[in-house]
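Structure ticket #2291
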Amino acid sequence: MSEKALDRRVRKTKSQLKTALTKLMAEKGIRDISVKELTELADINRGTFYLHYKDIFDMVDSLEQEMFDEFNHILNDRQDDEESRPLSILIDVFKFLQDNSKMCMVLLGPNGDVAFMDRLKNLVREKCLRDWMSYYSEKNAQNFEYYYSFIVSGCTGLFMKWLEEGMKETPEQMSALAGQMILYGVKVLY
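Resolution: structure written out below.
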């Protein structure tokens, strides 16, 4: 069998497992999901599962790492001018959420992994500190920490609300709204 056909089968198998895992995580926590239950839902042999992952936690870690790497790429590989960068990053973040909506819903939801969310927040924090502190004086570092905490919590809530509501607005519309909220706060409602 050709390597291309094998890669295609592996991608299909992993996709089926991811879909099944997403469905199960929407219903219960990771600790309550068995390999048997997952493979039955995915219509995959248990042996096939073990060719790719050692257990459910290994699979979740692998999926989280893929998403983390993609998210990291969004934050680090921008070539925009300084003035438009925050808005374009927000657009890319909302597109990322849209493209990965089902997995984001479960990972960021009540049955998700808090450690994964913390990794994403820390990545955003590092990026924001690097970019934003170049605009503002170093003496405001403590205020930035408070501001950052406030903004990240708000954006996380905004992301979840948008996903829960079925992503009716475009990523561009949501990034503009998020940008306005970050810059102007409650004035957005006037």
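Closing remark: Residues 161 and 167 are 9 Å apart (CA to CA).
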